[in-house]
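Q&A log
Question type: sequence-to-structure
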Amino acid sequence: MNTRRKERKRAAIEKQIDENLRRVYEQETTQQIPDRFLQLLDKLREQE
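Response status: OK
Response body:
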């Protein structure tokens, strides 16, 4: 495989990784905080 082809393949792989990471991050930021976690925060605040 020539150098240019390797570079293009590597760039395509890096782009795919970037897109997947962005997708996961966006999904995580749109999810609501679970009730269980909010309850735990409330209990911690009560102890202060």
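Response note: Residues 35 and 41 are 10 Å apart (CA to CA).
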